[in-house]
Amino acid sequence: MKAADGGQGGRKGRIVRSRKRSEAAFVRARASLVGGVNSPVRAFRGVGGTPVFLASGKGCRVTDVDGNTYIDYLASWGPLILGHAPAAVVAAIRRRAGLGTTFGAPTPEESELAELVRKAFPSIEKLRFVSSGTEATMSALRVARGFTGRDLVVKFEGGYHGHSDGLLVKAGSGATTLGVPDSAGVPAAFAERTATLPFNDVAALDAFFGERGSEVAAVIVEPLPANMGVVPPRAGYLERLRELTKQHGALLVLDEVITGFRVAFGGAQELWKIRPDLTCLGKIIGGGLPVGAYGGRADVMAKVAPEGPVYQAGTLSGNPVAMAAGLATLRQLRSKAVYRRLEKLAARLEAGLAAAAHEGGVPVRIHRVGSVMTLFFRDGGEVVDYASALCSDRDRYARFFHAMLERGVYLPPSQFEAFFVSTAHDEKAIDQTIAAAKEAMRVAAG
Ligand SMILES: *Cc1c(COP(=O)(O)O)cnc(C)c1O
Q1: Which one from 70, 277, 283, 385 is the annotated catalytic residue?
Q2: Is 36 left (phi over 0), alpha (psi -120 to 50) or beta?
């Protein structure tokens, strides 16, 4: 077995015997698919080794093509808040699929899901469904530019908003560097319309708005960043952002693709009591099928075609099967008891992981809000932004990841992603995870 697969990790507690079929599947995939995958992080480049090919999932567990079973904290990167194949969602998908899968004409389910979304997010007066989070953020910014007549967009270092051209930008050094593309193929002229600031830094925000506030069409932000690992906003930070954008006539766009329906039914804006101009949703609202949405102030959304001059369309937008999956999911999330239960389970996991790290003599920082958390292998300093997140020990995370995988726990294959707890997890699964972590921390300590 290769070292990257945890070969140095000791055999105790290892339940995964063989991944021969995954390895063969990866060889096959690489012959036809770029990098063997259809989204880069799935290739395990952040942790090394061969990606696990999955065959099925039920509840909080997934089974790979070799028949190994894992307790899953990837949750398809966030959507599966009810776990895998929840009965109500599967039934809704079957029912709706039998009646036709797409029409390219309106269906009543679109209004039903829209009404549920509006109930959860009072700031959303009007919305539009799309098919991914990337489409949601890209479209929201087009509307913001169309509404304000300004070009400049502000984002934060380490904030991920999908892969559209203007958003694949991170800052160079310095607080307010002009955008430099993060990807080949993005014209510098596009990237220049995106300014990037460090998150959680009020002084940088004030300085930027003092200088260029009148040019800003929109600020887009994950209110609880979760794509550099989970990094909560400092007290007053989001409030200051709301104040400055309002003062300067810029729109505040909250990217709640991860946090929407995750940290609360009404997302991070409910928790932090921030009313944005526009909100982007994705992941959970599709109940495991491809759905995104953007919406907000009625006067802003009135700019979208066919009511207004900002064009945005989609052959499969508002797809009835996806709407049905979203509806079946959100209906189960309406009860406050669901979020109390998620909090309880995730708090148990957090405490167990902290104890395991402590026992293993491994310094960590755990950031958690409800059922989303990141375990940073960080010696000392706090994690408040992208720069401090990057100080985490990626090699240690990789050792931990593989040691957990071998013990039947599937974590995100990157230090800078989040663990997701679902309603399908239970105390037993959490305790199994903690027991595995106690051993894996020793491997991670290396
Ligand atoms: C996942 C994600 C996106 C992109 O959504 P896709 O459906 O992958 O296009 C955008 N913003 C945030 C915060 C995300 O986590």
Answers
A1: 283
A2: left
Question: How many angstroms separate the alpha carbon of residue 227 from the centre of ligand 1?
Answer: 9
Closest CA to 2 of 402, 437, 410: 402
Is 160 annotated in the active site? yes
The structure's pTM equals 0.95
Nearest to residue 322, comparing CAs of 280, 293, 279, 294?
Answer: 293
The structure tokens 């995750």 sit at: 262
Classify 20-72+335-445 by CATH class: alpha beta
Whether omega for the bond prior to residue 187 falls within 30 degrees of 0, making it cis, is no
Residue 255 annotated to the active site: yes
The bridge status of strand 169-170 relative to strand 180-181 is antiparallel
Give backbone dihedrals phi and psi of 194, rounded to 5 degrees, phi first. -120, 120
| Ligand 1 close to Cβ of residue 416 (< 6 A) | no
Q: Phi/psi of residue 101, each to 5°?
A: -95, -25
Residue 132 Cβ contacting ligand 1 at under 6 Å:
yes
Average pLDDT for runs of 10 along the chain of length 446:
43 84 98 96 92 98 98 98 98 98 98 98 98 98 98 95 86 45 83 93 98 98 96 98 98 98 98 98 98 98 98 98 98 97 98 98 97 94 93 95 97 96 98 98 94
Which string of b and e fits 303-327 if b means at least 16 CB within 10 Å? bbeeeeebebebebbbbbbbbbbbb
Enter the CATH code of domain 87-333.
Answer: 3.40.640.10
Say how many C-beta atoms besides its own lie within 10 A of residue 358's C-beta: 12
> d(Cα 230, Cα 368) in Å, to the nearest integer?
7
Q: What is the Å distance from ligand 1's center to 160 Cα? A: 7
Residue 58 token pair: 């039920």
Q: What are the residues facing 281 on neighbouring strands? A: 293
Whether the Cβ atoms of residue 411 and residue 72 lie closer than 8 Å to each other: no
* Among 39, 138, 227, residue to substitute to test ligand 1 (most atoms within 8 Å of Cβ): 227
Tell me if residue 283 is catalytic.
yes
258 lines ligand 1 (CB under 6 A): yes
Domain boundaries, the chain: 20-72+335-445, 87-333
pLDDT at 172: 37
> Cα separation of 41 and 45, whole Å?
7
3-state secondary structure of 97: helix
In this structure, how many other beta carbons lie within 10 angstroms of the beta carbon of residue 80? 26
